[in-house]
Design a protein that fits this description.
- With 380 residues, the chain is α+β, with helices and mostly antiparallel strands.
- The protein has 2 domains: 199 residues, no CATH class; 146 residues, Oxidoreductase, molybdopterin-binding domain (Sulfite Oxidase, Chain A, domain 2, Alpha-Beta Complex), CATH 3.90.420.10.
- 43% of the residues lie in helices and 13% in strands.
- It has 12 helices and 10 strands.
- The strands form 2 sheets. The chain has a 5-stranded mixed β-sheet with strand order 2-1-10-5-6.
- Helix 1 runs antiparallel to helix 3, helix 3 packs antiparallel against helix 8 and helix 4 packs antiparallel against helix 5.
- It starts with 19 loop residues before the first helix and ends with a strand.
- The protein binds the ligand Nc1nc2c(c(=O)[nH]1)N[C@H]1C(S)=C(S)[C@@H](COP(=O)(O)O)O[C@H]1N2 and molybdenum atom.
- The ligand Nc1nc2c(c(=O)[nH]1)N[C@H]1C(S)=C(S)[C@@H](COP(=O)(O)O)O[C@H]1N2 binds next to loops.
């Protein structure tokens, strides 16, 4: 006869690695990643969609600014993924606290944690798929990712406020409860934190090469290798995708609108003073690559059409449709001597995919605003 087994004891969680100190130790790095990601994301948003009053004050220097901030945005978002998973693992037993709701305040606190976790998962998931240009959802990525960023940031502040006593204990090590544990030399916790650090290091090192040229050789998983593409530069939207063909360019002229409107052929543009600049394309999706550009200064063209030192510019692409067909450029960008209507890239005539016959290249600017296949330039 088989002995009957005693009833299964209720699930208990080993206190060690599911405790507040481990959660805080991971949480501070996760918090740092979220804050960096949020700040650089808001900056990117204002550079791309500035309200009218701000457009003329957005700085065109340092020329590498957007390359650094957007590289940080994508890198901190990627690093946050293993941190968030580790953090959720340390705190998940708390989801099963009994009774589930002790008081209205407790209910509110649990609700705020739910919003925080949901918003964080949503942001990291949509952001990650965006860098692969994969949009398996019915909404428009940019406005939703931007709105949920504020939701995430707000619920993070609330969470920090609610958890403040525990966070303070972590940094001051005053509370008797936590002093009772031999914190620093708990081998399990050390191993866990080491594992999380290794995971963050691995995902960062294998992707950050897309914006940090020196780490390019380590780059394995980033969706776009900065070295892959015609003329040594990646292409996000090809001429074919934009509906720009050799035939559609026959008889091309740059139409310049302003107090003294004019139209310039490619030969006339080539006859104007040419400048060479070294500037990166820094895509919002995280990759960036520096290149040598040759062309005419935008401010020279604006001046020719009757613009002054305060003029801004509006640029229209030959592309038939697309979110980046029309681009506006504030005063500091339009007047910067580095801002070119580029005709050549790395010593060669622009290829069709890089914007032939003429494209914009400007310092400290999101890639989406480096308009290709320019057909019209307006003094604004
Ligand atoms: N007209 C037009 N210009 C455009 C785009 C576009 O879709 N249409 N894509 C932009 C984006 S998202 C980037 S990152 C850069 C990339 O430039 P490249 O293809 O020459 O590397 O071009 C920008 N210029
Ligand atoms: Mo881009």
């Amino acid at each position: 006869m088989r002995p009957t087994l005693p009833p299964r004891p209720p699930v208990t969680f080993k206190a060690r690695l599911h405790d507040a100190r481990t959660a805080t130790a991971i949480g501070r790095w996760l918090g740092l990643a979220v804050v960096v990601c949020f700040a650089t994301g808001v900056l990117s948003h204002y550079l791309q969609h500035p309200p009218g009053w701000l457009a003329d004050w957005l700085p065109s220097r340092p020329y590498w600014g957007y390359r650094v901030t957007q590289g940080l945005h994508v890198a901190s978002g990627i690093a946050a993924i293993p941190l968030l998973l580790a953090k959720l693992w340390t705190v998940y037993p708390r989801l099963f606290t009994w009774p589930p709701v002790r008081s209205p305040l407790h209910a509110l606190e649990r609700l705020s944690v739910f919003v925080l976790v949901a918003a964080a998962l949503f942001q990291l998931f949509t952001g990650l798929l965006n860098i692969f240009q994969w949009y398996p959802w019915p909404f428009s990525f940019v406005p939703v990712h931007y709105a949920v960023a504020w939701l995430l940031f707000g619920s993070l502040l609330l969470h920090l406020a609610v958890q403040w006593p525990r966070i303070r204990d972590h940094f001051t090590r005053r509370s008797p409860g936590t002093l009772a544990l031999p914190e620093a030399d708990d081998p399990d916790r050390r191993r866990l934190l080491l594992g999380v650090t290794a995971a963050v290091g691995a995902v960062t090192l294998t992707t950050v090469g897309q914006s940090v040229t020196a780490l390019g050789p380590l780059e394995l998983f980033s969706p776009r290798s900065p070295d892959h593409g015609p003329q040594g530069l990646p292409v996000n939207r090809t001429a074919a995708a934009a509906g720009v063909t050799g035939a559609s360019l026959a008889g091309w002229r740059l139409v310049v609108a302003g107090p003294r409107p004019c139209a310039l052929t490619l030969d006339e543009l080539r006859a104007l003073p040419q400048y060479e600049v070294t500037l990166p394309i820094a895509c919002v999706e995280g990759w960036s690559k520096s290149a040598h550009w040759t062309g005419v200064r935008v401010r020279d063209i604006l001046e020719r059409a009757g613009g002054g030192p305060d003029s801004r510019a509006r640029v229209v692409s030959l592309e038939k449709a697309g979110a980046y067909r029309v681009m506006e450029m504030g005063r500091l960008y339009a007047q910067d001597p580095l801002t070119l209507l580029a005709l050549r890239l790395n010593g060669e005539v622009l290829s069709l995919d890089h914007g032939y016959p003429a494209r914009i290249i400007a310092p400290n600017r999101p890639g989406v605003l480096q308009t290709k296949w320019v057909g019209r330039l307006e003094v604004a």
